[in-house]
Amino acid sequence: MFSPxxxxxxxxxxxxLSSVERGYDLLAPKFDHTPFRTPAGILDATVHTLSGPALSxxxxxxxxxxxxxxxxxxxxxxxxxxxxxLCRGPxxxxxxxxxxxxxxxxxHPDATWVRADARALPFADGFDLAxxxxxxxxxxxxxxxxxxxxVHRALRPGGLFVIGLGTPAPVSSVWYWATLGFDVxxxxxxxxxxxxxxxxxxTTPLAALSEDLAAxxxxxxxVTATPSEGAGGLLILARxxxxxx
Length: 245
Description:
Blueprint: H1 9-16, H2 20-27, H3 40-50, E1 69-72, H4 80-86, E2 91-95, H5 98-107, E3 112-115, E4 127-133, H6 144-154, E5 155-165, H7 174-192, H8 206-215, E6 219-225, E7 233-239
Parallel strand pairs: 1-2, 1-4, 2-3, 4-5
Antiparallel strand pairs: 5-7, 6-7
GO molecular function, one term: methyltransferase activity
InterPro entries: Methyltransf_25, SAM-dependent_MTases_sf
Domain Methyltransferase: 70-159
């Protein structure tokens, strides 16, 4: 399904009837051959934007404006392409799926990989930049405060947390109704089947995310991600107060 190297329909059904962790362990070897992987256009647009004037406050000069970097809910490591281009120091990925981390480690052997629940991140004041792509739908609204508090704690004063988002689909688009239908189907599935598989596209409106980030102590901006080529999206820039390193 999706491509000759992607998962079959049967494999996707088995994944969907598993827990989130077990489902991604099963999907991991073929994940990069599915549409679930963060599009290269969003990754490129993130780098292009963060290398320019969208940064609040004075930005260090040079091709790598940040020190150390953290990819939150890293999956197979797509976000590492962003951290590698923006960070001059060590980079780390964290995820709770051992299968996804194994794929990430194989693709980026010189990065540090940590298995942990993103709602209880085991870091403190260690990073200048944190990013996450395509993962917020796995967290119920009530779980976001713990997630954002952990990222805030992981960043040094002045550090930046970047959430990459696609461009919101208009009500008239097929994608809008497809994501709505997907969320309804997942809610029905979780009402009748255990363990639950939390993945909702429509539980992360910008206003709610901004409020939760502000409550965690971040200074929040929303900017348009400007790609060097291809499609872009939106970026939430959440700055931990303090002088940047």
